[in-house]
Amino acid sequence: MSKQYDVVIVGAGPAGYVAAIRCAQLGLKVACVDKWIGADNQPTLGGTCLNVGCIPSKALLESSARYDDINHSFADHGITASGVKLDLAKMMARKDKVVSDLTQGIVGLFKANGVQWIQGSGKLLPSQQVQVTAHDGAESVLDATHVILAPGSSSVEIGAAPLKGDVIVDSTGALEFTEVPKRLGVIGAGVIGLELGSVWRRLGSEVILLEAQEHFLPVADEQISKDALRQFKRQGLDIRLGARVVSCEAGNKGVVVQYQDGKGEHTETVDKIIVAVGRRPNTNGLAADETGLLLDEWGFVHVDEQCRTNLPSVYAIGDAVRGPMLAHKGSEEGMMVAEVIAGQKAEMNYDTIPSVVYTHPEIAWAGITEQALKAAGTEYNVGTFPFAASGRARAAGDSIGMVKVIADANTDRVLGVHIIGAHCSELIAQAVIAMEMGASSEDLAMTVFAHPTLAESVHEAALAVDGRAIHIPNKKKY
Ligand code: FAD
Ligand code: NAD
In degrees to the nearest 10, what's the CA dihedral of 216, 458, 430, 103? Predict the structure, then answer.
């Protein structure tokens, strides 16, 4: 008996919807099941990324950066602005419009590619069947040759800070505040804590970040995270490291937060709390027990390099499987799996996935950190170049930060590029391309960059690997 669909995908976030579109492009008959209900109470596509993640957070980061610039950096350019007012409701409405325009775009792409959108909750059954429970409770079963699981992730909750209305919130609640909190506590100084903490600081909140670890942003290169910590503190973000929250008590006068650090117990009273302590995979109840779908100890679906699960013709991608919880990582996995299903040779390079923190300055990196190379005993050379020596950064009046290029000491192959500074979310792409092509620092150094650009700083950092940077004195002589 022929199957109803070639591929059924559970989840229409950036992993699932990209997989669906790529499968359809390859001539496969595809259905994509998603249970998301948007802010307007209607089913919608795009998952966390478009609805409550990447896109709304970046919309607010952009808007709040403009407000901050008007208040703090326009004067340096000789521009005086008076009567500047914040219309938070309008800022939020703009963010919501950005989200709805983009989610509607996915609806259009599904139609254009012939992907069938099935609204409801999906559960994997044996033999590549998916049980769907529609929003009205109606049940049906889809029959497929292949299934791709892309259920994404949700915010981790902690007993010390149970969510409460709009007072103790997760990242989704933090995108919806209707007024600027006077004092805002953030539990977790990771990516979300820093980005959303920055939004509210720029809009006028006094922001205290309580971070359990002693080291700030340990996933980034240590030199960069030290610089970032200095810059964020200078901006007024009150980052307290080694701070373990014990309890949060919401009352009439705000939230009383108790935390412990190396110096003892402390109490702070804040108006609101954002809990941003990580995300966990949405795999609870994703598969019927009799399927035998293998999860790891943290609940991620166990997959191989090409995202095959332990079940034949069942794949899993995105936040629900190992690797960084990043939209672009899930999307690449979606494309790879679609091509594998279509019988093509497909693989992806997990070593060059870029990471970006969209604060100001931005932080971006790809490849290996200096501390990891030291720990592995790999011999390497480093070239750095500060934006303070970049003509373009100076002209923009935004010259905080630096570019760091790390190359293998024996082969000169670029092993890692780490940047802190304005627009480095864009600059990192050239490093990713270089690493993907197996470029050496010499290749980057021989490439002609336009002047004046921030990108020239990548060129100069590559030149500095060999002590040949032009616009700074070189520590190392050529
Ligand atoms: P999701 O986007 O979570 O989508 C999963 C989808 O599956 C959802 O639509 C859900 O409704 C559906 N689903 C789940 N279970 C079922 C089921 N049983 N049946 C039917 N449907 C189901 N990443 C970046 O790369 N850059 C950023 O700037 C960035 N910013 C972020 C900001 C915030 C505030 C947050 C919270 C996250 C951010 N992320 C960012 C992370 C990014 O959003 C995720 O990595 C990405 O959304 C994961 O994609 P996904 O498709 O795996 O899962
Ligand atoms: P995260 O892992 O980046 O940071 C969580 C932080 O909370 C860590 O520093 C951790 O030490 C700390 N923490 C954990 N428990 C704590 C506790 N009890 N008290 C105090 N601190 C505690 O996670 P996140 O910021 O929640 O983000 C979740 C995921 O979403 C990340 O994996 C990230 O990849 C993704 N994301 C990416 C972007 C981006 O790419 N720009 C933006 C937002 C989110």
Answer: 50
At 249, list the tokens.
Answer: 């008590």
* List 72, 77, 135, 451, catalytic entry: 451
Pocket flag, ligand 1, residue 59 (CB < 6 Å)? no
Mean pLDDT of the chain, nearest integer: 97
pLDDT tens digits for range 294-348: 999 999 999 999 999 999 999 999 999 999 999 999 999 999 999 999 999 999 9
Which of 8, 54, 307 to mutate for ligand 1's pocket (most ligand atoms within 8 Å of CB)? 54
Mark 106-144 as b/e (b = at least 16 C-beta within 10 Å).
bbebbeeeebbbbbbbbbbbeebbbbbeeeeeeeeebeb
Which bound ligand lies closest to the C-alpha atom of 280? 2
Q: What is the pTM assigned to this prediction?
A: 0.98
* Predicted pLDDT at 475: 78
Q: Is 152 in the pocket of ligand 2 (CB under 6 A)?
A: no
40 Cα: distance to centroid of ligand 2 (angstroms): 28
What domains are there in the chain, each with its CATH number? 3-155+280-348 (3.50.50.60), 168-277 (3.50.50.60), 352-465 (3.30.390.30)
> 195 C-alpha to center of ligand 2: Å?
10
Query: How large is the greatest C-alpha to C-alpha distance in the chain, in angstroms?
Result: 74
Integer-rounded Cα Rg, in Å, for the chain is: 24
Residue with tokens 């899930």: 330
Atom of ligand 2 nearest to the CA of 245: 19
Q: What is the DSSP letter of 240?
A: E
